[in-house]
């Protein structure tokens, strides 16, 4: 019998994963989704042709459940699922902060739980999904999880103690780059460029830099040094970045994201 996978809470990340699974060749007949609002359910069904079911039906009929609701909604969802979930189901959580121990406490004894922190570039098959198994998750469960997440990017296994840090770096990571592009586009406008041209220049610089970081094998310092000519333009910019404490700001920002992930552990609002 083919494995059925259900996405429970098909919001931004749930839909991104669903679309990735379909691109990767999963049959829509092997997928189920759940949504809280009927209009959202209808829109998703129209867009993907996947059957929309209740959370309880998903618990009964899917072999693997991907829980993609907000951390603050997780406890309510687990209360709904627990009485109906056979203990052999694989439960994958994509929620920031929430530890596998909380799922193990609230779901039937022995339920295998895998915690995954994906990011939105799964939409373009360039995601990163950071994976940790709970205490009942076997190698087979981790492989099943990787089978779902590998087609939409890279995967990395880490001890669960590193998940809050991974969330700060990787789950939230794309947002920092969008923020930088937005700020640099504003700079382009200050320098007199039209917005669309400023945007294109910065986006292409970002893509070029990202591909070089990934493919050259060079340390980022080396790559930056190659751009930084003596008495040139780049060093003038770098001096301002250092003067304004951008490096320290980034370190503090990621530490704040890590701390927020820790806070979400118990479903904090
Ligand atoms: N966005 C991202 O980049 C990432 C998010 N995550 C994690 O993914 C999870 C979802 O985040 P995100 O997609 O941004 O949030 P969204 O709010 O977009 O998605 C959550 C979805 O869950 C639905 N929902 C809530 N409760 C239930 C329920 N009981 N039954 C069915 N559906 C329900 C919501 O419905 P409604 O539309 O009615 O509110 C919403 O559509 C979070 O735990 C987050 O930490 C992880 C990695 C990256
Ligand atoms: O902002 C958040 O809480 C989620 C988790 C990681 C990315 N987005």
TrEMBL record:
Domain Pyrroline-5-carboxylate reductase catalytic N-terminal: 4-97
EC assignment: 1.5.1.2
SUPFAM superfamilies: 6-phosphogluconate dehydrogenase C-terminal domain-like, NAD(P)-binding Rossmann-fold domains
Record's keyword terms, sorted: Amino-acid biosynthesis, Cytoplasm, NADP, Oxidoreductase, Proline biosynthesis
Residue ranges of every copy of the Pyrroline-5-carboxylate reductase dimerisation domain listed in the record: 160-264
Signal peptide: none
The keyword Amino-acid biosynthesis appears for this protein: yes
Single GO MF annotation: pyrroline-5-carboxylate reductase activity
Pathway participation: Amino-acid biosynthesis; L-proline biosynthesis; L-proline from L-glutamate 5-semialdehyde: step 1/1
Enzyme class: oxidoreductase
Domain of life: Bacteria
Known catalytic reactions: L-proline + NAD(+) = (S)-1-pyrroline-5-carboxylate + NADH + 2 H(+); L-proline + NADP(+) = (S)-1-pyrroline-5-carboxylate + NADPH + 2 H(+)
Alphabetical list of Pfam families matching this protein: F420_oxidored, P5CR_dimer
Location of the protein in the cell: Cytoplasm
Main location: cytoplasm
Annotated PANTHER family: PYRROLINE-5-CARBOXYLATE REDUCTASE (PTHR11645), PYRROLINE-5-CARBOXYLATE REDUCTASE 3 (PTHR11645:SF0)
Stated family: Belongs to the pyrroline-5-carboxylate reductase family.
Described purpose of this protein according to its UniProt entry: Catalyzes the reduction of 1-pyrroline-5-carboxylate (PCA) to L-proline.
The name this protein goes by in its record: Pyrroline-5-carboxylate reductase
Gene (UniProt): proC
């Amino acid at each position: 019998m083919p494995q059925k996978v259900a996405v429970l809470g098909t919001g931004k990340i749930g839909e991104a994963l669903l679309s990735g699974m379909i691109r990767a060749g999963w049959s829509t007949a092997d997928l189920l989704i759940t949504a809280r609002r009927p209009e959202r359910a209808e829109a998703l069904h129209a867009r993907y042709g996947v059957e929309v079911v209740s959370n309880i039906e998903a618990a009964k009929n899917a072999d693997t459940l991907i829980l993609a609701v907000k951390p603050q909604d997780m406890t309510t969802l687990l209360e709904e699922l627990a009485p109906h979930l056979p203990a052999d189901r694989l439960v994958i959580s994509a929620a920031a902060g929430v530890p596998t121990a909380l799922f193990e406490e609230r779901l039937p004894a022995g339920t295998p739980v895998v915690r995954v922190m994906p990011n939105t570039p799964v939409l373009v098959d360039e995601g990163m999904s950071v994976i940790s198994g709970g205490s009942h998750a076997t190698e087979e469960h981790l492989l099943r999880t990787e089978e779902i997440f590998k087609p939409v990017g890279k995967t990395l296994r880490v001890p669960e103690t590193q998940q809050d840090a991974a969330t700060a770096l990787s789950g939230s990571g794309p947002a920092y780059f969008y923020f930088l592009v937005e700020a640099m586009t504003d700079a382009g406008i200050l320098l007199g460029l039209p917005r669309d041209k400023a945007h294109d220049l910065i986006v292409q610089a970002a893509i070029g830099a990202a591909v070089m970081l990934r493919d050259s094998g060079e340390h980022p310092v080396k790559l930056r040094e190659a751009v930084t000519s003596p008495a040139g333009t780049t060093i003038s910019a770098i001096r301002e970045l250092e003067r304004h404490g951008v490096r320290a700001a980034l370190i503090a920002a990621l530490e704040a994201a890590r701390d927020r992930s820790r806070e979400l552990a118990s479903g904090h609002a």
